[in-house]
Amino acid sequence: MRPTSDSPPSDQKRNDWKTIRTLLPYLWEFRTRVIVALICLVLAKVAIVGVPLLLKEIVDALDPSQVDIVTLPIFLVLAYGLLRIVSTLFAELRDAVFAKVTQRSIRRVALQVFQHLHALSLNFHLDRQTGGVSRDIERGSRGISFLLSFLVFNILPTLLEITLIALILFSHYNIWFALVPFATAVIYVAFTLIVTEWRMKYRRKMNEMDSKANTRAIDSLINFETVKYFGNEAFETARYDENLQVWERAAVKNQTSLASLNIGQGIIIATGITILLLLASQGVAAGELTLGDLVLINAYLLQMFIPMNFLGFVYREIKHSLVDMERMFGILAENKAIEDRPDAKALTVTDGKVQFDHVAFHYDKNRQILNDIDFTIQPGQKVAVVGGSGGGKSTLVRLLFRFYDVQNGGIKIDGQDIRDVTQQSLRESIGIVPQDTVLFNDTIYYNIAYAKPDATQEEIERAAEMAHLKGFIESLPDGYETIVGERGLKVSGGEKQRIAIARTILKNPRILIFDEATSALDSESEQAILSAFSAIATNHTTLVIAHRLSTIIDAEQILVMDKGQIVERGTHRELLAAGKVYAGMWALQQEQQRTTENTTGYSP
Question: What is the CATH topology of the domain spanning 9-332?
Fold first, then answer.
């Protein structure tokens, strides 16, 4: 089974090195900047390691027991200050040079994930939970920033600094001054690795619950009207809190385990520093070391163990970043169910002939959706499909757009199997007015222009007029700049439908699909739109999924579907004369219409 964003962490756990290798191409793209940044890093560390050496010379020059005449070592003091400035300068230059590498990597990965999400199959998007996916991407992007910055500029420089200090201590003093910090470092690193790995389960649990909580919050807010209809605000709050409670427990365990890690690290470092200071103090008391040596050793101890302590923090955060990135890279690991063939060519539409050639299809092999569907829509023809709910009508549309591939048979446009052409060219050639129109949270102008982003204002206004939107738009204070709200909730169902119709008119494709496109319109608007459709559909191949049979009586062919099969086909008159399924549906709708007229005095 395909893992989703809510799959158990064990299903999504990636190899850390694999994640790091995924980022290497982004570093390689800016290799010059990376090299310059690394040079600045080395120069900054060499400068900071040289500071205690100068500090020792300054202290010895001011120690009366070491020199006969105490003089102010101005040159040494100035050199000391210069090294401090140089270390800071190169450290900041390093960050400035590397900033573009980090930010570009975040941008590239985020775009790659976004593009990949749009390339995934309809099945993935039907299963996904938007809130969780968005939070996964958000955390993953932050993780990239932290990982690149700290892996390159904290792990490597800290190791370089520790190595330089160990070499200086080994060359200037006896072997114990090198062995003690080395042993301390080994114990420290081993302790940090073991405890951090143990703690990661709490971090993963936090991420899982954070994504789930965000999913529930987004889902609840999107459906706020339904929540209010049923007065379920308290119920939604309780559902949201279920995940927050688990997240809270994991967060508490994460924090308390962090405290244990910090305590252990502090004890290890304090023990190492104490042993070295004892050795240095004994050397000064015995006359083997000067006060400058004691200052130098103490400065190096602080210089080595403070970064080492920070190294522990960095390692923990890098592990956190890798965990945060697991889910985002897990999205990239999702396979595209529908892909263009390597030799796929652009669809060439000449006449617009559409052919379903003995098509069979199922979402689940245990439940057949379509069985031996065979029909042809000749160029310029209007073919309607009717039938009960669950008969497979909408599946025809999804297959024509190639959201899924058929298991048997094929679908052809002008003799070209849609599996042999690019998805982009296929979808550019088809326009649809869906039953359930969802608009972007933007202006009316934007939503109409979405079909053709480079359209002129005149083209958009003409499309709106043909969709009978002009009067409605002119009645609004902001006209075309009116914001329609999230999912178009600020406009009525009929207005949304007309915007969708205007969008399709603007696209002007060779093949048109109307999926119960007038279902949300009143009788007067419906008749006006149907007249517009007739004009638009001239010389266009048209497939109509219909519920109201009165809207398709002019179709050249009507297909009646039941349980995934075509059980009748013919013109409106032929099907009425046959007196079977279609005739029964027509009689039922006519009776319902008469009942409505008698009850309300209104003719729909």
Answer: ABC transporter transmembrane region fold (1.20.1560)
